[in-house]
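Dear colleague,

Thank you for sharing your sequence with our group. We've completed the structure prediction you requested, and as agreed, I am returning the results in plain text so they can be pasted directly into your records. Please verify that the sequence below matches your submission; if there's any discrepancy, let me know and we will rerun it promptly.
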Amino acid sequence: MGLERNDGSAAFKSSATFPRRTGLADAAGASYESYGAPGRFLRHRDFLLYSGPAATTTAKADATFRLE
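Please find the predicted structure tokens below.
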């Protein structure tokens, strides 16, 4: 999956929604969990942003963003 154009469907809206959660690696940060696929979080690695599970310590750190 990559960048997709909004087709106006409920399925697209569900797939494109990532509500903010308490940071997985640091409660002072924020993590963003997929609304349409619970358990998948926005993550960063090697200057890329993607969604995936965050089960390991490294994955949790990749899925935690600092709030400023």
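Summary note from our side: The chain has a mean pLDDT of 92.

Kind regards,
the structure core
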